[in-house]
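Supplementary Methods, section 5.1.

A reviewer requested that the exact input to the structure prediction be made available. We therefore reproduce it here, unchanged from the version used in the analyses.
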Amino acid sequence: MSLPLALFSSMPWWAWAGFLAFIGVMLALDLGVFNRKSHVVSLKEALAWCAVWFGLAMAFNLLVSQKLGTQAGLEFFTGYIVELCLSVDNVFVFIVIFQYFRVEPRYQHRVLFWGIVGAVLMRALFIFAGISLINAFHWIIYVFGAFLVYTGIKLALPKKDDGFEPEKNPAVKLARKVFPVTTTFEGGHFFTRQNGRLAATPLFLVLVVVETTDVMFALDSIPAVIAITRNEFIVFTSNIFAILGLRSLYFAVSGVMQLFRFLNIGLAVILVFVGLKMLASHYVSVPIHLSLGIIGAVLAASIVASVMIPQARKEP
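The structure derived from this sequence is encoded token-by-token as follows.
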């Protein structure tokens, strides 16, 4: 199946157009009205936006259930929860990126906003390409399944602290070749004029790192949602709703991420589960409500363990 046909195979064009128009309006309101001036996002504001995006996602979930049936509604909700939880890893990375570049808190929202816009476009390509490949070559599903199992095992293993070196990022190297880069930030601007020549600011390099980081995370999260459903519309919309709420999630939980130290183990188990589900799809069909129950139980257990088990103190 070609990409253009896959794009509209599950839903009419007006459903896609309506969803994209809604997302465009929300993003325009976000940047052009509610966050027109750069400011530090407070915990109260972040929690309010988390509630807004979650409420919108659940309202859309209800619409999907009414129009496409209960099964589709459960698939959307499961995909949304999986993507939202896997996005928590992005929060860890965003913290490191902003600390490394010493980005002022009032400009972090601007970086994340444009990072999310880029993520929406890139994930759209990844989703439709991935589903098109599976439709054309069914054996690809086993490749995705094995990759998820590998990623889950790797996520559960202790990480080596090799240091964060964004200057080795190929995209950053390319950006430096294309544009001269100023040595200091120019407020919330990504570009400025230096001696009459267009120059990038360090904030643009931060955006480049955020965008390329999301590409790496998409390689994990998109196959995980495709394991739940191959309906392009549900995969895309659940993925995008989760990504759009990521900025608010960052500002809401960035200060308390250490409380969820066992969440990575839970996410690893979920990735292995959906990977095995893909590998066994020819022999075993796991009902969506059972998948949702397992995913919910694993997440709950990892959060409870993080709260109940005290963190070992390091020896002085």
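Confidence is low (pLDDT under 50) at residues 1-8. These observations are discussed further in the main text.
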